């Protein structure tokens, strides 16, 4: 039994002396950058949620928190214009697509920067979503005409251009710098 313990101790000492090359251990993560907030309203002007966007480690972190929406799966996208004129929110333009790609994470020619995962709204009308968009930035989001976030009536199929057959726009919010 003593030899078994000594063998384990020797292995532990050898591993402790290894340099794994990760110099970040024990150092704090960089501070997140500025934040933009979008208050979502439905076509009647009723507040139904909030979204935030923030630069984090070479990506744009987007969070969505909704309430009072119809239960089911809904497509969610960032749109290229910071306007939300009801009732159809067409003023928000198309998806945020700075690289001129196709729509959808399942599309071999995709994905728009504004393509987000589907939002699964529960029977209580609530849902949350958080996603990092690699390569996205606050500067790109808040360009000269701003950006909006849209919740659609139906599920995004993650493939069909331009919006994944996700149906009508049922909620919209304009991103405003915090």
SSE layout:
Layout: H1 2-16, E1 35-42, E2 47-56, E3 59-66, E4 72-74, E5 76-79, E6 119-121, E7 127-134, H2 138-141, E8 148-152, E9 169-174, E10 176-177
Antiparallel strand pairs: 1-2, 1-9, 1-10, 2-3, 3-7, 4-6, 5-8, 8-9
Explain this structure.
The strands form two sheets. Strands 1, 2, 3, 5, 7, 8, 9 and 10 form an eight-stranded antiparallel beta sheet that branches. Strands 4-6 form a two-stranded antiparallel sheet. A hairpin with a 4-residue loop joins strand 1 and strand 2. It has one domain: Immunoglobulin-like, CATH 2.60.40. It has helices spanning 2-16, 138-141; strands at 35-42, 47-56, 59-66, 72-74, 76-79, 119-121, 127-134, 148-152, 169-174, 176-177. The protein has 178 residues and is mainly beta. It has two helices and ten strands; from the N terminus they run H-E-E-E-E-E-E-E-H-E-E-E.
Label this structure with key terms:
Immunoglobulin-like, mainly beta, 10 strands, two-stranded antiparallel ribbon, 2 helices, 178 residues
Do you know the CATH topology? Immunoglobulin-like
Under the CATH scheme, which architecture would be assigned?
Sandwich
Q: How would the global form be characterised?
A: globular
How many discrete structural domains? Answer: 1
> Rg from C-alpha positions?
22 Å
What percentage of residues falls in helices of 4 or more residues?
A: 10-25%
Following the backbone from N to C, one meets helices and strands in this order, namely HEEEEEEEHEEE
Mean pLDDT across all residues, rounded?
84
Beta-strand segment tally = 10
SS strand fraction: 25-35%
CATH first level:
Mainly Beta
Please identify the structural class as seen in this structure: mainly beta
């Amino acid at each position: 039994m003593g030899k078994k313990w000594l063998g384990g101790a020797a292995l532990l000492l050898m591993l402790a002396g290894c340099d794994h090359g990760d110099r970040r251990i024990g150092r704090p993560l960089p501070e997140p950058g500025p934040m933009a907030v979008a208050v979502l309203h439905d076509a009647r002007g009723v507040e139904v949620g909030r979204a935030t966007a923030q630069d984090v480690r070479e990506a744009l972190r987007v969070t969505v928190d909704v309430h009072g929406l119809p239960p089911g799966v809904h497509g969610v996208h960032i749109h290229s214009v910071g306007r939300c004129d009801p009732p159809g929110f067409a003023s928000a333009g198309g998806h945020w697509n700075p690289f001129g790609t196709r729509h959808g994470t399942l599309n071999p020619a995709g994905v728009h920067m504004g393509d987000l995962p589907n939002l699964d709204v529960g029977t209580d009308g609530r849902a949350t979503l958080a996603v990092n968009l690699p390569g996205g930035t606050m500067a790109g989001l808040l360009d000269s005409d701003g950006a909006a976030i849209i919740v659609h009536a139906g599920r995004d199929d993650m493939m069909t251009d331009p919006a994944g057959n996700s149906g009508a726009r049922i909620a919209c919010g304009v991103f405003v710098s915090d």
